[in-house]
Amino acid sequence: MSDAATGPATVIGTSRDAPPAPPRDGARLRSGALVLLVQIALLAALLAAWEWQTRQSPQSSFLFGSPSAISRFLWQGLADGTLLRDAGVTALETGLGFLIGNIVGTLAGLSLWYSTFVSRVVQPFIVAIGSIPIIALAPIIIIWFGTGLASKVAMSTLSVVVVALVTSYKGALGVDPDQINLMRTLGARKPQIFAKLVVPSSLADIFAGLKLTVGFALIGAIVGEFMSSSVGLGHAIFQAGSLYAIPKVFAALVGTIALALILTFLVGRAERLLMPWRDRH
Amino acid sequence: MSEGTLQAVGRPGSPVPPLSVEHLAKAYRTGGRILPVVGDLTFALARGEIVAIVGPSGCGKTTLLNAVCGLTPTDSGRILWNGVPLDRRGRTPSGIGYMLQKDLLLPWRTALDNVKLGTELRGMPRGLADERARALLDQLGLHGFAGAYPATLSGGMRQRVALARTLINDPEVLLFDEPFAALDFQTKLLIEADTVRLVRDGGKSVLLITHDIEEAVSIADRVLVLSGRPTTVKAAYTIDLDCAPDDMIGARESAGFSDYVRQIWADLDIPRTTVGGAGRGISRAAARS
């Protein structure tokens, strides 16, 4: 890669001052394929061992549920639509909780940057709220929000909001003070520093928080469904579990994992869309 | 301020210097103790002049620079921009450009958008800003790199983008805090030459803080040597070399260069008790002979 040396009057740059070389795509692709291959092999081996073990005795297949039985339930749930309906409801609860919790938490966290005084005042309260196990709130949430969608969204939101607040505030505090000084010498006022510097430079931390809170939002929704519900993956797991229908529990669990993976994938896509400069190295 | 002074503001060649610092003092309080950093500092920066400030490590050079910009409050003394005292509320005066050793480019902005940062903050029309930014990038040899993100540029190129960002608001005075210190020698000479050319052509004044005595002597019209804490101006040299102002190699080869460097080196009074210190001194002497 050659440097820019075409200026009319000024000849700039030397071979010693060349931009960093991009990584080789071919090598990365090959090692990526290998990783995927090993992952698939590992999963297949696990399922085979599981299947073999559960065929040794009827007790074992009753207690652990064989992969073949699980796949039958999965197929049946997909065919009659119950699994999709449960997954859809849980996805809606999780998605709403994830969005509300992250929007509220991130806005609050970032705006704490504005005032050191306010952030110092509220810090112990945030720690206190953050240390409450969400499940302990479930009975109150059901009393306040009922047994429908709202209570699950509330549980999910509460599982997310403090994490989002803390990670975004940490991001806002991590801005280089020299960078702020530079903005000031260029004539920036505080709202401009916030919008043009603090928010974008906190994005990395905000997205780290988003990835973390996918799981938390799902836990909130499922715990809410455990407490009282008539539909949803959490409801399916709870009901099948109390009937000792182990393969059915696992089938719903597979649905839950799929949901978590889809949400994580979406967050990853959003990250690449909103932070394109991270990719182009 | 009298009316006469106000009239003189901004006129080229006027007797009122763009920046003057009078009896500046600043102390930090750490753990109940008072640590005086800047003792009693007085100097002025004339229009179109390049003044380099050298001093021992930890002598408060960066504190001085931040105080001059209004980023750090001072304890006593006055800072006058075009004869007008600095706003006590810590507002940075307009018409200054500030550049540090760190390029401080925003990684989410392309080179062009980084250069345009200052124009956005001041509300310059987008078309004009774009035109100016591109012209500056071209002048600094970065034609074709306008759309590149900082992560894809080399250290020298990033520092050029930072220089373009500093120059885009057409500041009267440039404040440099070791802007070239992190670059390799060859890159440094090239970017120094470009900087001097742009600064001289634009008739700007520069206050350059540096550790590098050779850099100070080769670039500046005047070199101020600071003492250790609490800092005062220990010595001042008017540099007169027989070469073009932007000729960095020529400056190093010209007759008086090594004498200035040796004198300033002596003024700094760096203790030579360590092996490393002695080695540096010898290698410098060897490089000049």
UniProtKB/TrEMBL annotation, chain A:
| UniProt name for this protein | NitT/TauT family transport system permease protein
Keyword vocabulary terms for this entry: Cell membrane, Membrane, Transmembrane, Transmembrane helix, Transport
Query: Record's SUPFAM superfamilies?
Result: MetI-like
Q: Where is this region: Disordered?
A: 1-25
InterPro entries associated with the record: MetI-like, MetI-like_sf
The subcellular location is:
Cell membrane
Which superkingdom? Bacteria
Tell whether Methyltransferase is among the UniProt keywords: no
Q: Which family does it belong to?
A: Belongs to the binding-protein-dependent transport system permease family.
Chain segments annotated as transmembrane: 32-50, 91-113, 125-147, 153-172, 193-223, 243-268
Q: How does it sit in the membrane?
A: Multi-pass membrane protein
List the Pfam families: BPD_transp_1
Q: Which residues form the ABC transmembrane type-1 domain?
A: 83-267
